[in-house]
Amino acid sequence: AQSVTQLDSQVPVFEEAPVELRCNYSSSVSVYLFWYVQYPNQGLQLLLKYLSGSTLVKGINGFEAEFNKSQTSFHLRKPSVHISDTAEYFCAVSGSQGGSEKLVFGKGTKLTVNP
Amino acid sequence: KAGVTQTPRYLIKTRGQQVTLSCSPISGHRSVSWYQQTPGQGLQFLFEYFSETQRNKGNFPGRFSGRQFSNSRSEMNVSTLELGDSALYLCASSLTPGHEETQYFGPGTRLLVL
């Protein structure tokens, strides 16, 4: 079974500061990894995904994430955040072998960017 | 291309009633998955449909059911509503099963059970 742990439930930062949102996963099979963002009263928007290849993945809005297989991590980073980045961020995993179509999500990290 | 649409966006029901939620996938997407999001349990997989067949089901009671039509639109139904069913219900569509990398989410239906 797959599982995802987002180590921080809340992360407050100041505008223009760098941020890292941590995500660790466990799985007995090869995985696909995703980060989604959810703004208040909205659905999920895909930020970026790791399927294979380069371990550094660049996404929308200046975010990037690095897949580390040995540490089973997929941390999300942004070098300089804006007020508009205030939202909840979800890390998710799915099996890459096919047969399981569901995403398993972490509990989410609420990022608050303060002026 | 239009995104995933869900109707209604907001719904208020009372305990014991039933409710039906609708999801229209992105054009060309034939797989539809449903998720429940609550503050306590987070995002949990409900079920997934492809070619009008349920392919996968999460750990939810039988009160939760769904179906998919020939045009890939999907509905989910919750019978005998309980207070704990209050949640945001998210629908996601993808090209075919096993392709979460093409999966996109709708805005959700927020259900409040009183």
General description of the model:
- The complex is a heterodimer of chains A (115) and B (114).
- Helices cover 0% and strands 54% of the residues of chain A.
- Chain A is built from no helices and twelve strands.
- Chain A has strands spanning 3-6, 10-14, 19-21, 23-26, 31-38, 44-50, 56-58, 64-68, 73-78, 87-95, 104-105, 109-114.
- In chain A, the strands form three sheets. In chain A, strands 2, 5, 6, 10, 11 and 12 form a six-stranded mixed sheet that branches.
- In chain A, strand 5 (31-38) and strand 6 form a beta hairpin.
- Chain B has 114 residues and is an all-beta fold.
- Helices cover 0% and strands 53% of the residues of chain B.
- In chain B, strands 2, 4, 5, 6, 9, 10 and 11 form a seven-stranded mixed sheet that branches. A four-stranded antiparallel sheet of chain B has the order 1-3-8-7, with no helix packed on it.
- At the A-B interface, strand 5, strand 6, strand 10 and strand 11 of A face strand 4, strand 5, strand 9 and strand 10 of B.
Which labels suit this protein?
A: 115 residues; six-stranded mixed β-sheet; four-stranded antiparallel β-sheet; 54% strand; B: mainly beta
Percent helix range of chain A: under 10%
Helix/strand structural class of chain B:
mainly beta
Number of strands of chain A: 12
Count of β-strands of chain B: 11
The profile of the biggest β sheet of chain B is:
7 strands, mixed
Strand content of chain B: over 45%
Give the biggest beta sheet of chain A: 6 strands, mixed
Q: What share of the residues of chain B lie within helices? A: under 10%
Arithmetic mean pLDDT of chain B: 92
The low-pLDDT segments of chain A are: none
Distance between the termini of chain A: 41 Å
**Spans of at least 5 consecutive residues with low confidence of chain B:** none
Radius of gyration of chain B: 13 Å
Secondary-structure-based class of chain A equals mainly beta
Q: What is the strand content of chain A?
A: over 45%
